[in-house]
Amino acid sequence: MSEPKSRKPTVQPLLTSPRWNPLLGLALVPLPALAFLFLDERSVRMENHWPDVLVTFAALTSDFVMLIPVMSTLALFTGVALTLHAMATAGKGLYTMASVMMASGITHVLKPLIGRARPTVFAEHGLFGRKALDGAFDYVSFPSGHATHAGALFAALAFCFPKYRLVFLVLALWFAMSRILLGVHYPSDVIAGLLVGLGSAFVLARLAARRGLVFSR
């Protein structure tokens, strides 16, 4: 009789490998700068030229990734899992909540400090407009909060459920793109937000996995 095959670990090697070099993440840092140079002004020129169906769908879905709806949904998901004694699932819910909160905190500290003017006032300020510490809607463009929440949420879900990572990638990109379609963020804003979200989810996932939490070995 052949011996039963050993169970394969479900944790992704990226999360536990001691050879991972954090400096590799710096390769993504120039992406917002490149978007600023080559995409931001073009996105303003595209205003009123996007297909109506995309703009309408963006308006209907964009706010799904605001902090309160996201955290409320995750809290409900985690609460149900705890009620059913599904502790592994509840752990993933708590990890995802922590990822979103960490990313959101970083972004909402940066937004008023940077004070970047939104595309809504492009005619007045251009790409370089800033009003640091103003706090008004038109001057908290960078990074995008919606894109940050989407990046953290769907990156965390991709780490928890890697089988569906392509679906989560598409969703993250859509919610980020919706902010450009609605004319309230530049491409560099949403790319920066996605990176903050991804980075937060990755750091917490790696810390959890290396301690045997959330992600089984």
The percentage helix is: 55-70%
Number of helices: 10
Average of pLDDT: 91
Strand content: under 5%
Order of helices and strands: HHHHHHHHHH
Q: Separation of termini?
A: 27 Å
Query: What does the radius of gyration come to?
Result: 19 Å
Q: How many discrete domains?
A: 1
Number of beta strands:
0
Dominant shape: globular
Please mark out the parts with pLDDT under 50 across 5 or more consecutive residues, or reply none. Answer: 1-9
Instruction: Profile the largest sheet.
Output: none
Q: Structural class of the helix and strand makeup? A: mainly alpha
Structure description:
This protein has 10 helices and no strands. By secondary structure, the chain is mainly alpha-helical. The chain has one domain. The longest helix is centred in the middle third of the chain and has 28 residues, at 87-114. InterPro entries: PAP2/HPO, PAP2/HPO_sf. The chain crosses the membrane at residues 20-39, 64-87, 93-110, 166-184, 190-209. This is Undecaprenyl-diphosphatase. It is an enzyme of class 3 (hydrolase).
Condensed summary:
This protein has helices spanning 13-16, 30-38, 40-45, 52-61, 67-83, 87-114, 122-125, 145-160, 165-181, 187-210.
Write the layout of secondary structure elements.
Layout: H1 13-16, H2 30-38, H3 40-45, H4 52-61, H5 67-83, H6 87-114, H7 122-125, H8 145-160, H9 165-181, H10 187-210
Helix pairs in contact: 2-10, 4-9, 5-6, 6-8, 6-10, 8-9, 8-10, 9-10
